[in-house]
């Protein structure tokens, strides 16, 4: 919980607001391989990752397509499902044994209504997600696989150590074999 409190403090919440917010979160442990969210079901929880690594993925003709990864001090949620209360198009799986701080949609919305600074915080989170999605889409459409890998090396080098090769390949839009060739050329 200390990492969540620290995150909230860095986000500008005072001690009273931090306590009110943290009081709505519940500790949850997920073992490696367990799902936080499942495609086809409504995601009614948002969680802050205290420890662990998560894979966001979709099924396409029996193949898993990794769309995103999240780790310590990130949030995990199937955002469209959480916001619209529609079945999720993706699943979210723990790649490691993990500890989360989870909040229900109902409690989340209650915080938005009762703590004005939480609504501003929420808007900031949404803006960050929109920018992340836009950059990811832009990179996938305009950069070569080699350029996307180099950008990953520069922007998020920890992922190269933490995320299995097949998931990195999927995120970059290449096969694991192609990614191995790219890595060999760049070293």
Share in β-strands: 15-25%
Shape: globular
Radius of gyration: 17 Å
Structural class by sheet pairing and helices: alpha+beta
**Sheet with most strands: strand arrangement:** 1-8-3-6
CATH architecture: Sandwich
For the report, how would you describe the main beta sheet?
4 strands, antiparallel
Low-confidence stretches: none
Specify the CATH class. Answer: Mainly Beta
Q: Count the E strands.
A: 8
Write a compact overview of the structure shown.
This is Cyclic nucleotide-binding domain-containing protein. By secondary structure, the protein is α+β, with helices and mostly antiparallel strands.
Question: Which helices and strands occur, and which strands form pairs?
Answer:
Layout lengths: L1 H9 L4 H8 L3 E5 L4 E3 L7 E7 L2 E7 L2 E8 L4 E2 L2 H6 L6 E4 L3 E7 H10 L1 H27 L2 H11 L1 H6 L2 H8 L3 H11 L1
Antiparallel strand pairs: 1-8, 2-7, 3-6, 3-8, 4-5, 4-7
Helix pairs in contact: 1-2, 4-5, 6-9, 8-9
InterPro entries: cNMP-bd_dom, cNMP-bd_dom_sf, RmlC-like_jellyroll
Pfam family, one: cNMP_binding
Protein name: Cyclic nucleotide-binding domain-containing protein
């Amino acid at each position: 919980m200390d990492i969540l409190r620290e995150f909230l403090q860095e986000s500008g919440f005072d001690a009273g607001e931090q306590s009110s917010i943290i009081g709505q979160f519940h500790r949850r442990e997920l073992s490696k391989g367990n799902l936080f969210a499942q495609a086809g079901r409504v995601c009614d929880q948002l969680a802050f990752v205290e420890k662990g690594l998560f894979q966001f993925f979709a099924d396409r003709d029996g193949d898993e397509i990794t769309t995103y990864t999240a780790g310590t001090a990130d949030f995990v949620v199937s955002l469209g499902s959480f916001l619209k209360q529609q079945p999720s198009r993706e699943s979210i799986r723990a790649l490691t044994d993990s500890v989360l701080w989870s909040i229900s949609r109902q409690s989340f919305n209650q915080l938005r209504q009762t703590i004005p600074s939480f609504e501003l915080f929420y808007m900031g989170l949404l803006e960050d997600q929109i920018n992340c999605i836009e950059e990811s889409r832009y990179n996938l459409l305009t950069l070569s696989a080699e350029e996307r890998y180099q950008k990953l090396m520069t922007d998020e080098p920890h992922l190269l150590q933490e995320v299995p090769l097949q998931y990195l390949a999927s995120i970059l839009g290449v096969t694991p074999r192609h990614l191995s060739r790219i890595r060999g050329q760049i070293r």
